[in-house]
Write a structure and sequence with these properties.
Blueprint: E1 2-7, H1 10-21, E2 26-31, E3 35-40, E4 50-56, E5 61-67, E6 74-79, H2 80-88, E7 95-103, E8 106-116, E9 122-133, H3 136-139, E10 152-155, H4 159-170, E11 175-180, E12 186-191, E13 196-201, E14 231-236, H5 237-244, E15 253-259, E16 263-269, E17 280-286
Antiparallel strand pairs: 1-5, 1-7, 2-3, 2-6, 3-4, 4-17, 6-9, 7-8, 8-9, 10-15, 11-12, 11-14, 12-13, 15-16, 16-17
Helix pairs in contact: 1-2, 4-5
Subcellular location: Nucleus
Main location: nucleus
Protein name: Checkpoint protein
């Protein structure tokens, strides 16, 4: 098993890690020949928030090598706090090399960092991040959950705006109803004992969704009869706020998909367009009845 690379875009990698850090104390990084994946959750768990992210490896690495008996895939579980702290040491470094190594018999992601002092002298630092390498039976569970066809897909307003609203709504209730239609309308609603607060947006874009082969996605049998009809889902406010922390990567496009009464799917694209190669997070938030 071998993994090594030179980090060429530490800033982006740090922001992605900080985004995932808000979701869980530990998560899984999957290194493949083409992509680096960030995984929070398991396909066998459908009652908790899950996130599956990916970015093409050449957007953040050079001299990239990954080899393993598991189809050249390496799954490592990391502590969110330790991983982010280690990466912050790379910020504005002259050179950073990453390597999967063993120290005293324990697996580590080692960051060999080269920097310069104020006097121009070279400074060398090694940051060892403890990891747990997953076995094949564990990695088999790390697949995206299956969901029903969504009735609505809509481009969200800037996440920082939604984050400000959600922080205020959080003080009122523990759940938020997210509703939208195919006529560019989005509603966030909180209902408490004697209070009902609603925020609405109009004039948003309902983007065309395609399939991996580039052909238009078929209209689901569960599609709403009218463009102005709303699909609704009630989710945990804490999950919704955690998703909004992805604003740290300053995404240009975030698509919200609603499976009426069942789940909320949120696609966060890090690049200028909806190209997952430039970086993508997919959040799966289940409905809550109570």
């Amino acid at each position: 098993m071998r993994l090594r690379a030179r980090i060429t875009n530490a800033g982006l990698l740090i922001k992605m890690a900080q985004s995932v850090e808000k979701l869980s104390k530990t998560w899984v990084i999957l290194f493949t020949r083409e992509y680096v994946h960030f995984i929070v959750g398991k396909s066998s768990v459908s009652e908790t928030m899950q996130m599956f992210g990916q970015i093409k490896q050449d957007r953040i690495f050079e001299e990239y090598l990954v080899e393993s008996a598991l189809n050249n895939q390496i799954f490592v579980e990391v502590s969110a706090e330790q991983f982010v702290r280690g990466l912050k040491s790379c910020h504005q470094a002259l050179d950073v090399k990453l390597k999967l190594a063993k120290k005293d018999g324990w697996p580590m992601l080692s960051l060999n960092i080269t920097n310069s002092s104020r006097t121009g002298n070279r400074l060398y630092l090694t940051q060892d991040i403890p990891v747990r390498v997953l076995q094949s039976d564990e990695s088999a569970e790390l697949t995206e959950p299956e969901v029903e066809s969504q009735q609505v897909h809509i481009l969200l307003p800037p996440l920082n705006d939604l984050k400000t609203i959600a922080e205020r709504l959080k003080a009122i209730g523990t759940h938020v109803v997210v509703a939208a239609n195919m006529n560019g309308e989005l509603v966030l609603k909180v209902v408490a004992d004697a209070v009902r607060v609603e925020t609405s947006f109009k004039g948003l874009i309902n983007p065309e969704l395609g399939q991996p082969d580039g052909t238009p996605a078929p209209t689901p049998q569960t599609a709403l009869k009218h463009r102005t009809a709303f699909a609704h889902v009630r989710v945990d406010m804490r999950d919704f706020v955690k998703f909004l922390h992805s604003s740290i990567v300053n995404p240009k496009n975030v698509i919200c998909c609603i499976v009426d009464g069942q789940s909320l799917l949120l696609y966060v694209y890090l690049g200028q367009n909806t190209d997952s190669d430039d970086g993508q997070f997919i959040y799966f938030i289940p409905a809550r009845s109570h």
